[in-house]
Amino acid sequence: MPSSRDSARLTFGIYPGSAAGSDTGEVVAGPPDDPARIVGALDELQGRDRHPLVVRAYRVFADADDRDRRSPAENPLAPVRYTGQGRSLDLVVQYQSRRGDTAGYCSFLRSVVAEHGPVISTLQVGFNTSLLFGPAASFIDRLTQAGGQRFVDDLDYVGLDFFPDVFRPVPPGRLEAVTEGVLGQHRQDVLGPAGLGAVPLRITEHGWPTGPGRPPERQAQVVRAVVTTVAGNAGPLGLAGYTHFALRDADSQNPGLFHQFGLMTDDYTPKPAFHAYRELIGALSPGAGGRRGRPGSRPDTGTPPPTRP
Known about the structure:
By secondary structure, this protein is an alpha/beta fold. Helices cover 30% and strands 18% of the residues.
């Protein structure tokens, strides 16, 4: 397993909400969130050393007549309650205006930052992708050409939603190699030509769902394989963060592919992957093993400085 020294730049995180997306664009959800159990689970993931953890949350801007039937405006609700104690907010402010209301979005964004600013560590304003292949790989290059050098200079990181072995099976024993290979390909062949070869890359969503034919033990194996591979390549590939999707299932009674991504069931019963992720955070977080910074340096508060995507 890589050591905390290997992954010194890697920040760990998790999405704690009850809602999840699907391949149809609809939102799937089951029982409502239980804030007290969420806080307890986050505490447990951090361990007694209170390793830093970012809490991923989503806000949505949509046209007024379109908001009721699209994704919830905020998930999880009131995410500030999950910050503190070494936890900060990884906030995604989604733009879903069919009318192209950029002025309204900018106003909404200012209000969100004013509301959550003190606890935000990272702010994603619409720029992350899944893995891109073929003609789709030119999307980021076209985006940076349209935005110009100012856009590139203002980027603090690029996000990647990454779900190996979920939609396309990976042969047994090949998950680590495939993970390293596709992340390297994304860095070299997608980000590089777009002028983003040196911009930090964050795994903003990763998970593997349980369900029929998808045993919990395999989920734990996937979490261990992907996280250790990401940590081991943090330096060479410029990987700055890993966030798991999600803390709990959207609906543990639904056998569908998109309902059981959680490290816990929807009643907050841990699966083996929950314990695996807790152990990985304890072993690989910056400062793990008694190292809390250079002698004479400021103590690690667990809250990194604010950045923009």
